[in-house]
């Protein structure tokens, strides 16, 4: 760590860095930033930077307001969109109390705790997210809703199109920040794009997602358009998911791989999926944390609505993708409910905890879903044992309230804050009179 600190201090001097932004995330998943002068960085490394945590969503209770931000030198990167005028760098921070204990409500610490539990069992948790978002002409919208930048579709090549230039610029910027991109392409909705980040350990991935959202927003502003990670900005077009591929490794060996097993999926892999399925309804208030998230989950267009798994079945909640022959290291499972607006630290904590619970308790994996689950009738789905994911945020809160797994994984303070925040959002939403109601009822009733 000392070597890494020395590297950061040397780079700041050599590159003429004028500001260093210290980044951290609140419980809802909003990126927070405080800029310090280069002369303050060494002190921040040694002692942390003090601030009033009670002003940050869910970070502390008012009577324990003082916290310290400790920059993680391994996350140091120069921000490419700042250019050569006042070069600026950033580091992610871990939040502690004044006596040096990890702040219980720091989402990054929640994930670190869960990863430590996995490590105690010999596992490293890797994730690979496919992040979808919409590019709109503006954040303003009229009677017909938001206006996308194009009318292209899935994998379309749009010569000279906004999205084309946008993706190229975003990918280059992400690579400059040390974030490897695997694919980028136009998605199914007009103005909808997807950029897939390369496999990394889950903490690195969560940091990368927070950086990714900032890069995408910055590039959009630069190009005179607006990027949104809202799960379902337009009712008639697909929502934006963040399908995440996951695997557990034991040392260099993929714990999900077993040669000769069905789909080459090991017993550990099958138990991990069983854990995801059993606890999916309980974790949905975190993986899908907004009222709008449920418009995506129940709006069709390949969003999963029912708890089941399948091999290469895109209607299933958990999918076991095809992988390249003789590449056991690529064996993985894909969780398809999570959306692009989730707090990645908390969501990945719960997805990992659910999978680990399946392994610890030896959960049995139910039979796979071979049909298109959406095309089945309710009776057929019931007969096959496919339960629903929560149909609304209110429904998801009810599952979460009863969950020992979620309470234990998030810790009491984060658990209570998420519930408080989400109940308030549901109350605010429920009290609205929407254009839909006025259109349907005002004249008729």
UniProtKB/TrEMBL annotation:
Essential cofactor(s) = Mg(2+)
Starting at the broadest rank, the lineage of the source organism is: Bacteria, Bacillati, Actinomycetota, Actinomycetes, Micrococcales
UniProt xrefs under InterPro entries: Gln_synt_N, Gln_synt_N_sf, Gln_synth/guanido_kin_cat_dom, Gln_synth_cat_dom, Gln_synth_gly_rich_site
Please state what the protein is called.
Glutamine synthetase
Alphabetized Gene3D superfamilies for the sequence = Glutamine synthetase, N-terminal domain, Glutamine synthetase/guanido kinase, catalytic domain
Q: Which organism is it from?
A: Cryobacterium flavum
Q: Which UniProt keywords apply?
A: ATP-binding, Ligase, Magnesium, Metal-binding, Nucleotide-binding
Residue ranges occupied by any GS beta-grasp domain in the UniProt entry: 15-100
Domain GS catalytic, residue spans: 107-445
State one molecular function term (GO): glutamine synthetase activity
Kindly give the Pfam families that the UniProt entry links to this protein.
Gln-synt_C, Gln-synt_N
What is the similarity comment for this entry? Belongs to the glutamine synthetase family.
- Highest taxon, organism lineage: Bacteria
**Gene Ontology biological process:** glutamine biosynthetic process
- Chain segments annotated as coiled-coil in the UniProt record: none
